[in-house]
Amino acid sequence: MPRLSLSRRAILNVTGEDAEDFLQNLITTDLDTLEPGDLKPGALLNPQGKILFEFLVSRSRDGLRLDTLQTSADDLLKRLTLYKLRAKVQIAVDSESLAQVSWENETGASETDSTVRDRRFPDEINVRRYYGSVPSADQDETAWIALRIAHGVAEAPMDYALGDAFPHDVNLDQTGGVSFRKGCFVGQEVVSRMQHRGTARRRILIVTGASDLPETGTSITTNGREIGTLGSVAGSSGLALVRIDRVKDAMDSGIPILAGDIPIHLAIPPEHRFTFPEATQEA
């Protein structure tokens, strides 16, 4: 069972009798469907619908746990505190809690409120996250990045910049990270309009290179025109945030798509339900 200690992560604990209602009215995740022992992605948006903070949300013994970027934790705490007003909620960064992830076999893993299943991945992969005092791990980050790439699971800052992407851009609508059935959340009007009108033009796609891919941040181009940016990379595989209409045009026209000077193929992640748009008039 591969097991990796996750660096650059921080935990925010949201507790108190109003904790769930407080978060339910702010974040993209539907907490009514969050089962004990499950972990789902989520985000806090700005009023224009773009992601300010991303996190993984799960239930703890006393409330809710937000697993987020270490560099974002203090700012997320401040932003949530601005919304707190008179709600009976306590929000604190847990500097003592460590995070690990494992996948495949579940040999000997204990089922506690500090062990949760990552629902961004299919059940058969059995991805689990552990919090608190955790044992030593045996994997480096490369194996974890390769697993994320294989299933199209994007994470900031490697795959997109906070403040510059809508939930649809990074496939949160495909991984349970945004709800279109619950009540309002910050930025909900914009995100719902994109959903109902089908206007999402950017998506995270899986990249397969003809050889090892260049570094994260390399431009994805076709016919000399930039159509996206390369994100996480593991050898000849990677993720990219791209304009899917322009990808489809290039594919239909037989025009090569490049990451730097490396020819690549782009594909929709296997568990995701969106499709490439119909060919445009320009094509």
CATH homology-level superfamily of the largest domain: Probable tRNA modification gtpase trme, domain 1
Shape assignment: globular
How many domains, in number, for the residues? 2
Strand order of the largest sheet: 1-7-9-8-3-4-5-2-6
Give the % helix.
10-25%
CATH domain class name of the largest domain: Alpha Beta
- Low-confidence runs (pLDDT<50, min 5 residues)? none
Tell me what portion of residues adopts beta-strand conformation. 25-35%
How would you describe this structure to a colleague?
By secondary structure, this protein is an alpha+beta fold. The protein folds into two domains: 3-152 and 179-193, Probable tRNA modification gtpase trme, domain 1 (Gyrase A, domain 2, 2-Layer Sandwich), CATH 3.30.1360.120; 201-267, Elongation Factor Tu (Ef-tu), domain 3, CATH 2.40.30. It contains five helices and 15 strands. It has helices at 19-24, 73-84, 141-150, 188-197, 244-253; strands at residues 3-5, 9-15, 38-45, 51-59, 63-69, 90-94, 98-102, 115-118, 128-132, 202-209, 219-222, 225-234, 237-243, 257-259, 262-267. A nine-stranded mixed β-sheet has the order 1-7-9-8-3-4-5-2-6, with helices on one face. A six-stranded antiparallel β-barrel has the order 10-13-12-11-14-15. Strand 11 and strand 12 (225-234) form a beta hairpin.
